[in-house]
Recover the amino acids of this structure.
């Protein structure tokens, strides 16, 4: 039983490390320099690879047969399920604010675009005015509103740690792409959890988008 949990933890750690490594500018630059013909398919391949590698840790988590450490009961059940539904609704709503072709990598593949930088400039959606990483926020709500056994708790703790560390790594890259506009955004909007009084008004968001468009590079030099 203990070996099951150890393997689960190692798979999650490996997954998160590889996920961040392959998304880094350094790895992209090396691949672009050595195999430039592979770059149009990089984003698409990265997403497919990430989904495939997600299967083993999720399978181990779901097949754990240990006892529950805690379970939501009574009124708390309604609150937990309500928060989970809210997270799912927010996630579904947020999809309209993303360029699905750019995000999935299909556009880069079809256009045979081999640049390292994404073509999309800074876009601050309604949710992004309240929290810098709304998908991570939704994931945290979903994760921590579930009944917990040992496998789910380990997964929740490691995922939460990854969201904290991974968001910082992602923001370093966004600072390279969007410069001063993103620096100002960082100073105004919380990272993972919305906080009263810390948000952007609509005109402020549009102002930062305009600033980002003025300085957005078409590519990152390799």
């Amino acid at each position: 039983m203990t070996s099951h949990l150890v393997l689960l933890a190692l798979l999650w750690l490996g997954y998160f490390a590889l996920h961040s490594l392959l998304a880094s500018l350094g790895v992209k630059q090396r691949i672009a320099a050595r195999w430039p013909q592979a770059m149009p398919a990089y984003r698409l391949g990265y997403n497919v690879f990430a989904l495939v590698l997600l299967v083993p840790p999720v399978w181990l988590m779901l097949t754990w047969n240990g006892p529950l450490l805690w379970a939501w009961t009574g009124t708390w059940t309604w609150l937990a399920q309500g928060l989970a539904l809210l997270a799912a609704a927010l996630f579904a709503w947020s999809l309209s604010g993303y360029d699905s072709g750019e995000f999935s990598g299909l556009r880069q593949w079809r256009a045979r675009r081999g640049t390292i930088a994404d073509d999309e400039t800074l876009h601050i959606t309604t949710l992004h005015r309240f929290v810098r990483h709304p998908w991570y926020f939704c994931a945290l709500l979903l994760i921590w509103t579930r009944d917990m056994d040992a496998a789910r708790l380990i997964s929740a703790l490691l995922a939460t740690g990854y969201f904290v560390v991974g968001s910082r790594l992602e923001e370093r890259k966004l600072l390279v792409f969007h410069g001063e506009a993103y620096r100002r955004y960082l100073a105004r909007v919380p990272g993972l959890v919305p906080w009263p009084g810390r948000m952007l008004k609509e005109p402020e968001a549009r102002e930062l988008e305009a600033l980002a468009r003025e300085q957005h590079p078409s590519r990152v030099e390799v």
